[in-house]
Structure formats: structure tokens, C-alpha cells
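User: quick one
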Amino acid sequence: MTQPSFTLKLPEWINKEIEKNGTFSSDEQKMQFVINCGIQNVKLQTGGPFAAALFNAKTHELIAPGVNVVVASHCSLAHAEMMAIGIAQQKLGSFELGKDTELFTSTAPCAMCLGAIPWSGVGRVVCAARDEDARAIGFDEGAKIDNWIDALTQRGISVTVDFMRTEGKAVLDLYASLGGKIYNGTGEE
Amino acid sequence: MTQPSFTLKLPEWINKEIEKNGTFSSDEQKMQFVINCGIQNVKLQTGGPFAAALFNAKTHELIAPGVNVVVASHCSLAHAEMMAIGIAQQKLGSFELGKDTELFTSTAPCAMCLGAIPWSGVGRVVCAARDEDARAIGFDEGAKIDNWIDALTQRGISVTVDFMRTEGKAVLDLYASLGGKIYNGTGEE
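Assistant: Done. Structure below.
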């Protein structure tokens, strides 16, 4: 038997999106890149309406992007934040990204991604759309602890929410308007 | 630029462990396989003291094993449960495993793996050691919701805890006694 393994890939178009956005110097530019990736993922039908990216807070360099590829990769773990974390850690050869690393995400993390954030070693999380915006189009964010922002803060991770929420919500609404697949592990695949 | 991706692999010895355990007909045999994988992972120093496996509840077939390979794979996502889920879903070509799928795990899931369970589509979770047993040797289980068993049950996932807890705890204690690395995303790598 071959050694059991699995591989998760981002869509090929992500490289063009990276090339288009050479430099980042503000939170707005970083989040706009994430939003653009989310829009592309929806328009090109390569996954769900969720995007994320990891940046170095000091150099403002993009470390890794991520988009939701659950359906395309047949993998319920393939949320945007998880893709960015997995790619960044293998790129840097470290299972801890370090406190200078910022995670930008187009929608506040679901229960799984929230649980993954402290283990990733990032120092900051910036979210656009809220959980309720994802729920409004039928996505389930899972059973998150009520005080999730405090829980991250207590672990030394700073959290910014509602940052460009309108733009994050627009990605979700675009997906819904195009009749995108909603999946929540409920056996309705 | 090449298409961003990441690959997670189980250690090669897992195939021998699978061959040794041809058939499974009881929960005890399934959990014993998981415990054996945990012991091997510790003894062969291929990862943390955590193992898991997915079985078909009707045929009792092993779908996919998993062990913690966080350090070896430079990936904080590479917990035992996540490995089993990722491998099983790619093997079956589906992001929802189905309610006939059972997840056996040597220690109750951390916050991330707990969040991943509903998205995976499994119908049953069986845990050996408790969160507090993992914490006793220095591992952090994350900010889990207090009523995590109820939260899974309400989603139609049945949960059995403290099943062969002594054996699950023994894997943790073996790791601690051998001076195994403790990592919690706190920048102390």
C-alpha cells in the first residue's frame, strides 16, 4: 500500500491574482486582495465564497493566500484559512508562523478555523463579514464559543472584526445570487 | 509560480500497522488499533501522542488511519483526526463521509478537530483519553465550548467518551516519560 497522504491545492488563477497585487502597505490593501480572491473563487466556480491570506505585519509581504476549495478538492477541511495556514507553514518549514503573521479573512472564522488559529502561531486576525452574514445565505459557522474574540485576545492574538464587512458580505451575496452550493456536513451533498 | 498547495503524509510504518490488524468487529478492536498507532507514533518519534481512525460502522472496515504529524510535516493542522478525515475524503472522493462513518480517537478532540467533525459528515465519535489527560502532560486542547458533547449530539453525531481511557492516557504518559516535544502555538518552537 502506498503511504497514506492527501494534497490540497489552490486554483491556478490565484497566481494571476498574486501578480496583480504586487505590494501591500495597508490593512485595506490586504483585505481588498482577500476580497478579490473571494470574488474570483465565486465567479470562476472554483469554490465557496470565502478567502483569506497571511501577511508579514512588518514587511507587509504576502506569505500565502487561501480560498475555500471544499467541493473541488473533496475535502471538508479545505476552508480558506486552513489553506493559507497549510501553504504558509510548508513554505516556511515551520508549524508556528510567529506573532508577526497576520491572518486576513473575508468572513469571521468557523468553529474549525477558529480552533486552528492559536495552533498556527499567528499574532493577529482581521475579519470582514460576520458569522451572521454567512448564516444569512445558509452556511453554518459551527458551535463557536460565545466569547471567541476574547479567547483569542487572551492568547495574545489581536482581533479586528467588521473590517470592510460590506465588501466581505458582498462576496457571500454574490455566491448566493449565482445559486452556489451550500454544504454543511449534513449529508445533503 | 507553481500552484500553491500542501501535502500531508502519515509515517510509512502505518501500513505495517494496518496489515497487522486485518479485521475489526468491535469498538474495542477499533480503539486498540488507534491506541497501537499512537504508541508507534511515540516510540518511533514520528509525531505527537495522538492517533485516530475512521471506520465504516456497517462493514467495520478501516477507511483511514491518522496520527499527529505536526512537527514532522511542519503543519499545525496535522492532528490525528484531521489526517484521518483528509485521507478518507480524498480516498472516497467526497467531502462528506456519511453517517455510517465512525471516528475513533485516542484523546478527545481539541477545539480545531471538534470544529472539523460536523463538516466531515461522520455519524459517531468515540474518544479514549479526556482533555484533562492531554492537559496533564502540557498539551493545550484550545477553547472548546463547555457542552461539546451535546453540541455534536444535537447535530446527529453520537458521542462516546472515556472509552478505553486508561489506554488512551497511557499513550500520553509514554510520550511525556520519553520527553516528547510539547507545542501549543505559543512561539516556543
